[in-house]
Design goal:
The chain has about 110 residues and is of the alpha+beta class. About 15% of the residues lie in helices and about 25% in strands. A 3-stranded antiparallel sheet has the order 1-3-2, with no helix packed on it. The structure holds zinc ion.
């Protein structure tokens, strides 16, 4: 009974030290599913999908290839400066942030 006080404080300290996986990291990870995109080898299909037009809302991990209008998907949240490769049209691009905060890709020549 006398040690109950010590064990509670012990538990709270170990709880605070479990910050090896930052919550930010888990938040920005995306689960990618097959989308039926069949223009690239099976292994890479989940990283691309067809764009559904202006009504298609892109997630923070998706950006449209300005060359072939295919949506490139990343397993992580995209940040300005990220480099992407569009396998269907073999373009290299870099992620940029527009004035309204939306992300778009610019082809690197
Ligand atoms: Zn492309």
């Amino acid at each position: 009974m006398t040690t109950s006080d010590a064990s509670t404080s012990d538990a709270s300290t170990s709880d605070a030290s479990t910050s090896e996986t930052s919550p930010d990291d888990t938040h920005s990870r995306y689960e990618l599913d097959e989308t039926g995109f069949n223009e690239v080898p099976k292994k890479w299909r989940k990283f691309y999908r067809h764009w559904g037009g202006p009504t298609d809302k892109l997630a923070r991990n998706e950006v449209i290839c300005p060359v072939c209008k295919i949506v490139i998907r990343s397993a992580r949240e995209l940040q300005p400066g990220d480099k992407l490769y569009c396998m269907p049209c073999m373009s290299r691009m870099v992620v940029k942030e527009g004035p309204d905060g939306h992300l778009f890709a610019e082809v690197i020549f």
